[in-house]
Automatic annotation (TrEMBL):
<dbReference type="Pfam" id="PF12854">
    <property type="entry name" value="PPR_1"/>
</dbReference>
<feature type="repeat" description="PPR">
    <location>
        <begin position="245"/>
        <end position="279"/>
    </location>
</feature>
<dbReference type="InterPro" id="IPR011990">
    <property type="entry name" value="TPR-like_helical_dom_sf"/>
</dbReference>
<feature type="repeat" description="PPR">
    <location>
        <begin position="151"/>
        <end position="185"/>
    </location>
</feature>
<feature type="repeat" description="PPR">
    <location>
        <begin position="348"/>
        <end position="382"/>
    </location>
</feature>
<dbReference type="InterPro" id="IPR046960">
    <property type="entry name" value="PPR_At4g14850-like_plant"/>
</dbReference>
<dbReference type="GO" id="GO:0003723">
    <property type="term" value="F:RNA binding"/>
</dbReference>
<dbReference type="InterPro" id="IPR002885">
    <property type="entry name" value="PPR_rpt"/>
</dbReference>
<keyword id="KW-0677">Repeat</keyword>
<dbReference type="Pfam" id="PF20431">
    <property type="entry name" value="E_motif"/>
</dbReference>
<dbReference type="GO" id="GO:0009451">
    <property type="term" value="P:RNA modification"/>
</dbReference>
<dbReference type="Pfam" id="PF01535">
    <property type="entry name" value="PPR"/>
</dbReference>
<feature type="repeat" description="PPR">
    <location>
        <begin position="213"/>
        <end position="243"/>
    </location>
</feature>
<protein>
    <submittedName>
        <fullName>Predicted protein</fullName>
    </submittedName>
</protein>
<keyword id="KW-0809">Transit peptide</keyword>
<dbReference type="InterPro" id="IPR046848">
    <property type="entry name" value="E_motif"/>
</dbReference>
<dbReference type="Pfam" id="PF13041">
    <property type="entry name" value="PPR_2"/>
</dbReference>
Length: 529
DNA sequence: CTAGGGTTAG
């Protein structure tokens, strides 16, 4: 091993340590450094190797990071290498979760004689980012103003921080003052504009910027995705020349999956796997794809996706687990869903709601209530989806009183406005238990225009309880809302048939023929006749 | 050679 002071930068130890760090093997990088140090191979350890080691420390499990950071901090001090810009920056990055720690590191590293004013620039940029992440804009601004040297990264961080905090005017003002701009500068403003609902202005800047990076495209695509503008997102995606970017595919697949275009989501997924594209999916891709399978109820494809996932060695993170919980509960495999749910590293309102909805769908009332209470005990507030699950559990069990109480407390206690879905469940439950008038009243009280399916739930109840008069009224509402849907005609026909009103059945069939509606194969129409 | 701008679940 060479141990002359000039060679140690490119010594085999340094190369091995940096290689391990680059390959994402943090424990190996750290172990290699420790053995190089103990063996005395490097009388003066290489600062670049130390920077790589500190970077590796940041990839260790969170609880071990603080202790490791402190001991390497002391180690650097002892070696007289703390003020070296590279290990210093790596250490600053390690401390950047905690702005106080990052600040004290910089305070204890005073500007030494002969050191260039920019030598700790990267560390200061880290502290700046840390302050901005913690939301301390005044402190960030103060640091920015007193920095001896600022580069484009400092400016970008400041602009991004202001923009994300909604200080768009200040962000743009600063953006205009920048001595030099790169794609990230534009992206920072665009991202802020999108976050605060100025999608059109964001698009204008996007079209105006001189050079767009992939991040620019992806930021715009996901902006349109969140606004529900699938067309605009797809248009941009097709315009992208460099589609060799997993983030772009993930953004487009998520866009479709989140906006109810499950088939298109799977189409894009298939496209990214084609040999001429061949971008390997990750756990984020699979979260969206699993959600799409679940929306389609396509369990066969879902299972294929899962085996593909296993063959790629994809780890199940909490998002992916939650998507799988949803898929499995929809296919009635509630036990597998529960196993996945139990394996979550952290339960939140989304995962709880997925499991509660799954229990509701599968008639597991006690489990649904248990999960709801457990969630409350954990101080996680329920949301609209949690109540969809709970209400459908009560619906399944036919418990009218409990459902009514639940429906009421949703708005009074939890301040959640009932959606169409909640109303549909209540109408279905009230109707099935013979409270047809109450169900009708509830629909009339709805603050939104009832969809055909809400009336349809009540029409089904009219069929169950052979109520011709109300059935006719409800059916006309269904025809109004969904003129092309023959199912409601068939349902009304069944109501007439069960009351032996055959002339009305005949007239209805004639109307259907006139309106070019055919009866569905396998309907009970034939039996009724 | 670091630091800043991007993708996931009900």
């Amino acid at each position: 091993m060479p141990n002359s002071t000039a060679d140690h930068v490119n010594s085999p130890w340094t190369l091995a340590i940096r290689a391990a760090a680059d390959q994402g093997r943090p424990r190996r990088a750290i172990a290699l450094y420790l053995s190089s140090f103990r063996s005395g191979a490097a009388h003066r350890p290489c600062p670049f190797a130390l920077a790589a080691v500190l970077k590796s420390v940041s990839r260790l499990p969170v609880h071990t990071v603080a202790t490791a950071a402190a001991s390497f901090h002391a180690h650097l001090l002892r070696l007289g290498l703390l003020a070296h810009p590279y290990p210093h920056a790596a250490l600053a990055h390690l401390y950047s979760r905690d702005p106080v720690a990052a600040r004290s590191l910089l305070d204890e590293t005073p500007p030494a004689r002969g050191r260039a004013p920019h030598s700790l620039l990267v560390s200061r940029n880290s502290l700046l980012a840390s302050l901005l992440r913690s939301g301390d804009l005044p402190a960030a601004r103060a640091l920015f103003d007193q920095m001896p040297v600022r580069d484009v990264v400092s400016w970008n961080s400041m602009v991004a921080g202001l923009a994300k905090a909604g200080r768009l005017d200040r962000a743009i003002e600063l953006f205009d003052q920048m001595p030099e701009r790169n794609a990230a500068s534009w992206n920072a403003v665009i991202c802020g504009l999108i976050a605060h609902g100025h999608l059109t202005r964001a698009r204008e800047m996007f079209e105006q910027m001189p050079v767009r990076s992939n991040i620019s495209w992806i930021t715009m695509i996901s902006g349109y995705a969140k606004a529900g503008d699938v067309q605009a997102a797809a248009g941009l995606f097709e315009r992208m020349e460099n589609k060799n970017d997993l983030y772009a595919w993930n953004a487009m697949i998520a866009c479709y999956a989140q906006n109810g275009c499950a088939r298109e989501a799977i189409g894009v997924f298939n496209r990214m796997l084609k040999p001429h594209v061949c971008v390997l999916p990750n756990e984020k891709t699979f979260s969206s794809v699993t959600s799409a399978c679940s929306q389609l109820g396509n369990l066969r494809f879902g299972l294929w996706v899962q085996s593909f996932m296993v063959s790629l060695g994809i780890e199940l993170d909490d998002h992916l687990r939650t998507a799988l919980v949803d898929l499995y509960t929809k296919s009635g495999q509630i036990d597998r869903a529960f196993d996945l749910f139990k394996g979550l590293s952290k339960r939140d309102v989304v995962s709880y709601s997925a499991m509660i909805v799954g229990c509701g769908m599968n008639g597991k009332l006690n489990e649904a209530i248990g999960l709801f209470n457990e969630m409350s005990d954990a101080n996680i507030l329920p949301n609209a989806v949690s109540f969809v699950g709970l209400l459908s559990a009560y619906n399944h069990a036919g418990l009218v009183e409990e459902a009514r109480a639940c429906f009421t407390s949703m708005s009074s206690k939890y301040k959640i406005r009932p959606s169409m879905e909640h109303y549909t469940i209540m109408v279905d439950l009230l109707g099935r238990s013979g409270k047809l008038d109450e169900a009708f009243q509830l629909i009339m009280q709805m603050p939104m225009q009832p969809r055909a399916s809400v009336w349809g739930a009540l029409l089904l109840s009219c069929r169950l309880h052979n109520n011709v008069e109300l059935g006719e009224v409800i059916a006309s509402k269904c025809f109004e809302q969904a003129p092309g849907e023959s199912g409601y005609y068939i349902l009304l026909g069944n109501i007439y048939a069960s009351a032996n009103k055959w002339d009305k059945v005949r007239r209805l069939r004639k109307t259907m023929k006139e309106r070019c509606l055919s009866k569905m194969p396998g309907s009970s129409w034939v039996l009724a006749e």
